[in-house]
Structures are given as structure tokens and as C-alpha cells.
Specification:
- The chain has about 70 residues and is mainly alpha-helical.
- It has a domain of about 25 residues.
- The longest helix has 30 residues.
- The radius of gyration is 29 Å and the shape is elongated.
- It starts with a helix and ends with a helix.
Amino acid sequence: MRDTIANVGMTPTSKNSMVTSAAATKTSGRQFGTPKIELPANLRELAKEVMAQTRGNYEQIESAVNEMMTVLSR
């Protein structure tokens, strides 16, 4: 028994709590699966719009930074 505990790395107490936890899950009847997520049909179009808006925001920020650097370097 001592070799088993050393090899597995679990104490008898942790094994008992795992058994108790598994039993509780079985009796509760709950199933833990991947939730189903419904995506909009036009998800690709929405993603393209978001990317275009993000690109525009980035360009505005880049322009403002370049202008600020010009002012600071004077």
C-alpha cells in the first residue's frame, strides 16, 4: 500500500474524497458537457466590419502618435 501511495502521489484521504465526489455527481444526475452556442448567420460579415473599424481606429491612433512625436521633437 505504501508503494501505491508513493507511485500515485495520493493519500488515502484524497482518494476517499474523489470517490465521494464521483458518487455525488452520479446521484445528482447532472451532465457536464460543452454548452451549445448559437452564432449569428452573418458572423463572418460582422467580423469583417469589426476588423475594418479596428483598422481605422489604429490608423487614427498611429496618425496622432506621429503628429505628437513631430511636435515633441521640435
